[in-house]
Amino acid sequence: QVQLVESGGGLVQAGGSLRLSCAASGNIFSFNTMGWYRQAPGKQRELVAAITSGGGTNYADSVKGRFTIARDNAKNTVYLQMNSLKPEDTAVYYCNADGSYRVWGQGTQVTVSS
After folding, report:
1. Taking a C-beta distance cutoff of 8 angstroms, is the pair 84, 75 a contact?
2. Residue 48 and residue 60: Cα distance in Å, rounded?
3. H-helix or E-strand spanning residue 73
4. d(CA 12, CA 92)
């Protein structure tokens, strides 16, 4: 079974940028959809962005125009470029692979200070 490892989280000031990476231990091409979710304290996990094997993308309204998701099947890696970060983006960000089975990464903390 494929495992996912996120990296790139950290502390950044409002208006700054971060790029998250999700490295898979195996081939991600077989997964229909790769996505990034986030969960803030006391809130439910929510979809941030998703990308299909064909390159179609979907974003939460709150991040449209600021975040960009991309996948590199050759490197088995999915990225989330986050620009113009806001304090309300603070959360643990999780990578997800959705296909014949579903896989979650362990999460990476993103903290945006005001």
Report:
1. no
2. 5
3. none
4. 14
